[in-house]
Here is the input.
Amino acid sequence: MAFYESAMHIFIFNWTPVLSTKGSPIPHGVVFSSMMMCAMAGSSSFNIFERTRSSKVLVIAMLMSACAMVIPGCIGVSPEVIKYNFFAFLLFEFCIGIYFPAVSKVRSEIVAEVHRACMYNLFRVPMNALVIIALLVQPELTSMFATTFGMLVAATMLMTAAHYWTKTREEEPLLISHKASEC
Here is the structure.
């Protein structure tokens, strides 16, 4: 989850220069509102999958996110591919919209209420470290999005493993016990 959310934050810092051209200004309001509409559509579409395990929906959303980042990460960020990058960013925002309700449900199934705040804060440490490192290093945009693509692939593989691990252990309780030590 730290990889996915790190990729999301790195994307937030870098989408503007990818869509910039030297000749004309970006319609920031239109672009941002389009992205937010896609995120809302993704969030609303999560309800369609209510009979599917949330971890499976999460794996699919992460895989689609990785596919979206192939365009800026592998094809590039030149002015000739701006519209393809824009559509890739819209797909990524749609996947982010699916990600948040799905990950919230998965986390609630795994982590007991007593330990949630502590566990969520511990998850934020590697996420923030990855974002800070990426912003301090400041590689070229194509390299930055290639790194983002790599983090999304890693997040997808880890979530796939977690999905199958929890699927094979369904007979055992998934919640972290109240008897576990406090954070």
